[in-house]
Amino acid sequence: MFLIPSLQDCFGIDENLGDADFWPNGGERQPACEDGGDGATSVKDGSSCDHGMAYVLYIESIKYMPSSTHFLARQCPSWKHYNNRSCPCGHPVQYMGFNADPRAHGVFYLNTSRTAPYGLLDSDCSAGAFSLVQIIGLMMLSILLVLLLLLVGLVLIQQYFGLPILARVRARLYMEDLVWHGLGKSPSTHILNSDKAVDT
After folding, report:
1. Which parts of the chain span the membrane according to its record (predicted)?
2. Residue 25 sits in the same domain as residue 63
3. Domain that holds residue 180
4. Tens of pLDDT along 87-126?
5. Nearest C-alpha neighbor of 4 from the set 30, 36, 38
6. What is the rounded CA–CA span in Å between residue 24 and residue 10?
C-alpha cells in the first residue's frame, strides 16, 4: 500500500501506515497552497488545499515516464536529512505516485513546485528506468527475437517459393560435420558432394 499523507489540517495523518509512505515537502504545508501557489485552483473537491494536493500530485504523476526524474523520492529517516541532501538516490530509484515500485518499503521524501506542473526534477539522481541487468536481458531478448524472425522467414520462403533452403543448410552442416570427423575423403562423401548420378 502506498500513501501520500498530508499534515496541518483535520484530514491529514502524521504516521507512516503504508508499505511505502511518501511525504511531499515533508508532509506539512504544501508550497502550492501558500502565497503565490495555485493549489487552491487545482483542488476542486472542496477539501482543504494541503490535503487535496495528494490526489492532484498523483494525477500529475501519471503523465511522467520513469525515464525522467519527476517526482523522484529519496528514502530518508527524516525531512531534515532530506533537506541536508544526505539521503542517497536509491537503487533502484523510487517515484511517488503512478510510477511507484510496488516492491518499495520505507519512508520517502521529495519536493514539489508552487505551481503546476508540480513534479520537480532531481538533477542529482539518474532516472534509473532500467538497471544494467535489465538492459543486458533486453539485448539478449532482442537477439533471440531477430533469430526467430529469420527462422520464420526461411520457413516461409521454403514453403511458398519451393526453395529447400533449410534442407540445404542441414545437408551442408552434416557434410561439414563429416569432414570434421575425418570422413570427408571417403568415396561415399565424394559421391554425396558431387552432382553426378550414380549408375546401378
Report:
1. 135-157
2. yes
3. 132-193
4. 998 888 899 999 998 888 999 999 999 999 999 998 888 8
5. 30
6. 18
